[in-house]
Amino acid sequence: MTALTHPTIPTMPLSAPDDTPERCQAEERPRLRVARLFRTQPLLLDCGVPVSDVRLAYHTYGTPQETATLVLHALTGTSAVHEWWPDFLGEGKPLDPTRDYVVCANVLGGCAGSSGPADLPTLNGQDAPLTLRDLARAGRALLEHLGVKRVRIVGGSMGGMLAYAWLLECPDLVEKAVIIGAPARHSPWAIGLNTAARSAIRAAPGGEGLKVARQIAMLSYRSPESFAATQSGQRQGVPAITSYLHHQGEKLHARFCERTYVALTGAMDAFQPSDAELRTIRTPVLAVGISSDQLYPAAEVQASAALLPHAQYVELNSIHGHDAFLMDAGDLPEQVSAFLKS
Length: 342
Fold this sequence. Notes:
Blueprint: E1 33-37, E2 43-44, E3 50-51, E4 54-61, E5 67-72, H1 81-84, E6 102-105, E7 122-123, E8 126-127, H2 132-146, E9 150-156, H3 158-169, E10 174-180, H4 188-203, H5 208-221, H6 224-230, E11 234-235, E12 238-239, H7 240-255, H8 258-270, H9 275-279, E13 285-290, H10 298-306, E14 311-316, H11 324-327, H12 332-341
Parallel strand pairs: 5-6, 5-9, 9-10, 10-13, 13-14
Antiparallel strand pairs: 1-4, 2-3, 4-6, 7-8, 11-12
Helix pairs in contact: 2-3, 4-5, 4-8, 5-7
């Protein structure tokens, strides 16, 4: 993958690296910070490669506490929760900075301020493969840096799958977990979609392949009913759906890194915990399926939750597919709030 480019395009200007825990109060404007971790002892990746001086970019909301709510973002997400999840972040909402300390970090391997593939050592001349457990261990180091000793996790899509890795890797740290629109492991369907996306990137490195990868992904993030409702007809002389997909590809190309896309989708595909491993999870979990999800069908999300000894399952009814948790949340914020408070 050495031919792939690696722009680092944060969602807002980076502050100087911050080697002291965040002390931002709830009323301050959210600011992207960067922690430098593993400076004295390296993080040993599951592939056997040691990594030192890791950057994790993060946002915090609220007053620092030893117990925090940790938000785990989706595949192309960032740590700026206020930009992409307004239904969930704010006073009286599940992520309430007036009450809780909310933390979100751009994952290891990301491209919004954290150490990405170009910043990490190679293995056999290729980008060193990352695992979701690697991402969880890096995230734990950030929490230690911030003085956080216990967390409630809220994760959607890739973040929900990463929550499973946290539950297996850091069971002593996690009090509760909310897993939205994610199974414990990828199906052949999900792996196939990611394989096609990575093939597009490798066939056309430099950006064009990433645009196609995004178009493939967008088709899985919505549903036929959603597109019928929102992308019917023509737009400037072409089918609206064609214009929409080209626009989405251009947008992602402008802000994301193809090597990150390859690394993170590969980590998700490789995460295949056994039923026996899942049955060892004793943490209370709220699992949320989405009725029209084409990527992770609701039955698949429910089946993963059924393996957990202390899980409850609810379903979000929406025509908008996998992305409904971002665009059509309905009463999900109230259900998540009730679970986190229970």
